[in-house]
Write a structure and sequence with these properties.
about 325 residues; mainly alpha; two-stranded antiparallel sheet
């Protein structure tokens, strides 16, 4: 229990203090880049448009199994090797290996420039900043649209970038953390209904939904606790999102901040009619993005306390 607690605490401390530094990224890249290369290789082999939907779906299942084998195999082997070589000091190695799988600091640092640009009335800069974290078209967003996009991304990513990696590390150690990151990467790359993915990405999307099921609900509860409210909106509106999980944290954020989020958006020039989530103002601004970041920091503090406490109970 002490080793797991120390490893998790070290990984969290490094992430909160440093994020994933640009110098390290330039020299080493990031482990998810390795997953992306595996996914790309599998897609070239198994996602052929002339094949039937059933065959492409089967190859998507094989891709997921390959990814899990790589992630769990490498993480498990490295964890075992660290324990064998370092003995009682293995927690340092395990903490270092877990560090890049967490994104508490980097998520905050990607959203903060949006708030700063909006605060200085730099709409073009705010659009550029928010384009780094959302998939929708940003070139024509007004200030409220930019602010809502940043807050929505922060809410959704609180699950898959923060709560879920911690959840799976507590539950299954280093292999659990990196298995989750592998599947989440696959979902972001191929888990789409649109061509050319469709059947090939089905397994990645469904498994990602399953792995986020509990973390999303935990994250939503923590956002409401950190915000001192939002429960009614959470309960009423969590199902208004296309994702079975993202709606939980987004509704919690909307309720806690007293905002309306989501609504109609444009992807690749095509307008998509989405339901509104929340019952407050839709005219969000820089102050609302700053409030969302404060709420996020409080929710992260609660999540860290829950994670460390869970290790004591689970492993004790």
């Amino acid at each position: 229990m002490v080793e797991t607690l120390a490893a998790l605490a070290l990984a969290l401390a490094l992430d909160l203090a440093l994020g994933w530094p640009a110098a390290l990224y330039a020299r080493l890249g990031h482990p998810v880049g390795g997953f992306a290369r595996v996914i790309g290789w599998c897609a070239r082999l198994g996602n052929r448009p002339q094949w039937s939907a059933g065959r492409r779906r089967a190859m998507g299942v094989v891709t997921v199994l390959v990814l899990l084998a790589v992630a769990i195999g490498l993480a498990g082997a490295l964890q075992a090797l660290a324990t064998w070589l370092a003995g009682g000091w293995a927690w340092i190695v395990i903490g270092l290996l877990a560090w890049p799988g967490l994104a508490l600091r980097s998520l905050h640092d990607h959203v903060r420039p949006v708030a700063l640009a909006l605060a200085r009335d730099d709409l073009a800069g705010a659009r550029r900043a928010v384009a780094m974290i959302v998939g929708r078209d940003t070139a024509t967003l007004d200030r409220a649209g930019v602010a809502r996009a940043a807050i929505e991304s922060l809410a959704e990513s609180f699950c898959d970038g923060v709560a879920a990696p911690l959840f799976w590390m507590v539950l299954a150690g280093l292999p659990g953390l990196w298995a989750y990151k592998a599947i989440n990467t696959a979902d972001s790359l191929i888990g789409h209904r649109e061509a050319p993915w469709g059947p090939f990405g089905w397994a990645a999307a469904r498994l990602d939904d399953a792995l986020n099921l509990l973390p999303a609900r935990l994250g939503a509860v923590l956002l409401c606790l950190a915000g001192g409210g939002g429960w009614a909106v959470l309960w009423r509106d969590h199902g208004r999102h296309a994702s079975p999980n993202a709606g939980w944290t987004e509704a919690a954020m909307a309720g806690a901040l007293g905002l309306r989020l989501a609504g109609p958006v444009v992807y690749d020039g095509v307008a998509v009619a989405k339901d509104w989530i929340g019952q407050g103002r839709a005219a969000a601004d820089a102050r609302d993005v700053a409030r969302a970041l404060r709420l996020y920091r409080r929710a992260c503090a609660l999540l860290i306390a829950v994670a460390l406490g869970a290790v004591v109970v689970w492993k004790g």
